[in-house]
Every structure is written in C-alpha cells, then in structure tokens.
Amino acid sequence: MVTVVFLLGLLYVVFAAVLIALLKSAVLVVLIAGGLLASQFWFSDRVALFAMKAREVTPEEEPRLHGAVDRLCALANMPKPKVAVADTELPNAFATGRNADHAVLCVTTGLLRRLESDELDGVLAHELSHIAHRDVAVITVASFLGVLAGLGVRIGFYSGLVGGRGRRDQNTAMIVAAVVVVSAAVYALSFMMIRALSRYREFAADRSAAQLTGRPSVLASALVKVSGEAGRIPVKDLRTAQAFSAFLFAPVPSGGEGEGESKLAQLFSTHPPLQSRLDALERISADLGES
Fold first, then answer.
1. Is 133 within any annotated ligand binding site?
2. Distance between terminal CA atoms of the chain?
3. Would you name the residues annotated as active-site residues?
4. Residue 88 has what pLDDT?
5. Among 163, 176, 178, 252, which is most exposed with the fewest C-beta within 10 angstroms?
C-alpha cells in the first residue's frame, strides 16, 4: 500500500508539472477537480445512503445490529458510527464517511436475514476497520489524480481547441493535444493503481476483522455466503448497488469480478478474488491457532 501511494504521489507531481508547463488554465482545472473531490469527500455518507435507499435505525428498531456494533466498537476502542439499514435483498454491507466521527455503517436487510450472529460480527468488524483506517478518505484523495486527468481529457476534447473552430494556431493545437495524451495516460495509470490500492485495503480490513473477532473462519464463512447468494439476487437490486460496488463488503456480480475472471480482469477489480481472500484468512487462522 505504501508503494502504491508513493507511486500515485509521484504521478501527481509529474502530471501537475506537465499541466503547468503546457496549459495556462491548469490552475482552473486543478480547482475544478479539487472542488469535485471535496464534495465527494464531504458528502460521501449522505450520497451513499441516498443511492442505496438506506436509513438510519435506532437501537430500538435494530437491537441485534446495534448490540453487535456497540460490542465491536468497545473492543476496537473506537467511536460508534451511525448505523443504517438498506431495504434490499442483496446481502452486503458498506461503510462510508470522511472520518470516524462522521461515519456510517450500513447493512442490508438481505444480509441480516442470511447471516448468523458470529458471521455478522465478522462483516461488521471488516467495515469498522475501513472506518478506523479512514479508507474512504484514502481512496477519495487517491482518486483526485484520476478525476483531474479525466477532466483534462474532457476539456481537451470539448473545448473546441482540438480539431475545432476554436483552434487558434498549430502550436495551440499541439499543446492541447499533448495535454489530452498525457491526461489519458495518467488517467489509465492512476485508475490501475487505485484499483490495486482498493484490493490491498480489502485484504487489510479482512485481517483487522479476523484479529478483532479472533474468528477468521467465521469471516470466511460470511464471505462465501454473501458471494454465493449475490448471484441469486434480482437484477433490480444488483443495479442499484453496482455504482457502490467498490465500497461493499463483497463486489456486486457484473460478469467481471469473480473467481472465473482472467488475470487481466483482476487488475480492474476493486476486490481481491474470493479464493485469495479465503486463503489469506486461512493463513491468519493458522497464525492465531483458531480451532
């Protein structure tokens, strides 16, 4: 993870230098991209809950869920996040929010119906790990370069400077074309690195959850259940969750992510393959001496 973040930072510096050297409006591009990322960073919890049609629930409404979160937060010595439930058959969970004091942990009704209490603990511990380690903030900041590069490509294509009437001279056209090419290359590189970072964060959250609960095998059982049941969920529920697949406990089936995917497809995945996660949990179980 440190290597990926370092490479992303290096890419930031190089791309910013190229933008400043080639494009006079680079500052404007950076400000626009920064504004978009700031909005995503600040309002991510509200956007996610709205998109998943989730609502906050009280301890009286969901005593089992709140009890589990209370217990795990006490074990982890961390603030309790808001607790929400999304009314969907898709068995899954996610955590969002810019920090531990402004976080939301959401589970679906499908998950609550399908998992045993100890399996639910494993999933909740996984999501609490994302909150404790500020993974949403990490991915949001890491995504800034991709948004910036994508914006650079769009500005180049739609500004009218490339191949359009707005082209003032050949030099201007060459400069903007260079920005488009560099932006496209940077976008591709940052996209791949962010996906790699996301997969590493999932492994890290699995490890933290296994250590917190002391039951890696239970988390593995929950993973198998959630991944297996997702394929039998109505298409409508799957489409609702597709946009937030990267933040979910297990990825939403889309024909790309899964155990049968190619090595190339795995590079584009936000989550490690199921078997890789199970193998990692098995090693942790052996280390912990779980019976």
1. no
2. 31
3. 127
4. 87
5. 163
* pLDDT band with cut points at 50, 70 and 90 for residue 102: confident
53: tokens are 């049609």
Share of the chain above pLDDT 90, in %: 38
> Is residue 261 part of an annotated ligand binding site?
no
- Virtual CA dihedral for 91, 82, 52, 268, nearest 10 degrees? -70
How many domains does one find in the chain? 1
Neighbours of 117 (CB within 10 A): 10
Range of the domain at 64: 2-288
Which residue in the block uniquely carries the two structure tokens 């119906």?
113
CB 229 within 8 A of CB 110: yes
Among 128, 154, 146, which residue's Cα sits nearest to residue 206? 128
At 57 the pLDDT is 95
In this predicted structure, the answer to whether residue 201 has a pLDDT above a threshold of 70 is: yes
Q: CA geometry: angle at 242 spanning 73 and 36, to 5°?
A: 80
Report residue 167: phi and psi, to 5°. -70, 120
